[in-house]
Amino acid sequence: MWRFAHDAGRGRWDAHLTVICPWCGRASPLSGAVRDTLAGILRNAQLSRDSSPCMELPADAWDESGLSAYCLECEQPVRFNPFAVDNSALEPYTRQCPATDGSRRGTAGREGGGEISSCANCDKTCLEPSLLLGSGQRICHSCLADQLEFGKWRQQADEEDETTCSVCFRDMQGAALQTAGGIICRTCGLSAAEMLADAEALEQWTTEMIRDALCLGDGVLQRLTVLRRLDELLARLTEQLPPAVSEGVVQNLGFVGSHPFAQYVRQLALQACHLLGEDIVPFLFRLCRRQPWQLYANVLCALSDLALDDERSQKLFRRAAADPCSEVRSRIPSFLSRYEAGWTREVLEELTTDSEEEIREAAADVIDDWDIADHKMEESEKGLRRLAERVAGEAEPGVRLSLVTALRGTRASWAIRLARKLSDDPDPEVSESMRQVVAEWDARTE
User: Are 109 and 199 in contact (CB under 8 A)?
Assistant: First the structure.
């Protein structure tokens, strides 16, 4: 996407693949972890540029665990398609964000063969990967790392400050970092942090360094480096992965520091759990806690991909469905949506009576989708179900009696839920009519 600047003649291609969250409706950048997953899917499928991924990708591409993530704005769970609509090939190892210089592993670069610039902050020559600002100035590797880690981030730019990011020219929203060369939005700061992580030399990293990066202090850049490049670190280890490293990965599922990148750390930790697979499952059960809620929700998310057949997972999800924290309960329908079983239906049926309307609706939607797949209801019945649930609370008995008649022709899960409610209706005519319909259903089943 082309981003126009306020000054005439300025602008550039957007530095980020952008996604729209179906929960909050806000745009946010696609994380590097999901971007790498998409690139891997397309490479493995060996599709040509003229191919249609949505038509030609293998079925298992849609089940790739790396496509699960969280919205960077509202932290609700989202699930991505295994392809992207972009104006160039999606190859994160070779395609560079316009805001950064250097290869994925930190080779210094110059755009257009021009002279290497001096850092806007320390005035030293930028011989390492650097951040290119819209003004043409750069921030060197060392200053960039220091400012991203320890700089003062503001949750919202002041009115008298610049209103657009110095890198991507977007209007300022959310967290912003003031640098010597201008103000930077969180999205561009995150891209710069990814660049620094990818430029880190891993040859000398030991298991102790990996453990300390995951567990010590509130720093984010080393956490990002380890979690983003865990596959490479594991490939270099000659000994078995120490339990302390696995514990560190799980603990970062609940990393809730004040830094604007904290949510991205949690997202990378979730991706790391998928990478470690069954080996991480015992640590997920052992370290699961209700507080902070982010840890609880992310453990459930990881288990939904790795161990839903485990009885311990079933117990955790049943307890979570009754958890006082709505942030936890609201995520359960999404976590269970790809696993239809007797116990998952029971959990979602419980959530259809939740005190929060959005949670009730999300749980009912998943059950509807299962029923449609099982040919127990038609797609068109979704609208009828929503109308019927509203009518069931109607004060006029005659309206509820009409609903009983409408339910006679279906026995989808939503109809059974309403039948239970209407069988106990305070109006004797409504309750008796509903019991007769239930008896007819039972007779047809026999």
Answer: no
Q: What pTM was computed for the model?
A: 0.75
**What would the pLDDT profile of 336-375 be if each residue is shown by its tens digit?**
998 888 999 999 999 998 999 899 989 998 998 898 888 8
d(CA 3, CA 14): 6
Virtual CA dihedral for 396, 399, 400, 404, nearest 10 degrees? Answer: 160
Q: What are the C-alpha distances in Å from 415 to residues 394, 403, 425?
A: 16, 10, 15
CB 48: neighbour CB atoms within 10 A? 6
Sequence-separated (6 or more) residues with CB below 8 Å from residue 435? 423
- Burial class of 248 by CB neighbour count within 10 A (0 to 12, 13 to 18, 19+): buried
CB 261 within 8 A of CB 223: no
| 25, burial (CB in 10 Å: exposed 0-12, middle 13-18, buried 19+) | exposed
CA distance 321 to 324: 9
432 DSSP assignment: H
DSSP letter, residue 119: B
Residue 429, token pair as written in the block: 């005519």
**Would you give the DSSP letter of residue 253?**
G
- Whether a cis peptide bond, with omega within 30° of 0, leads into 292 is yes
Taking a C-beta distance cutoff of 8 angstroms, is the pair 240, 257 a contact?
no
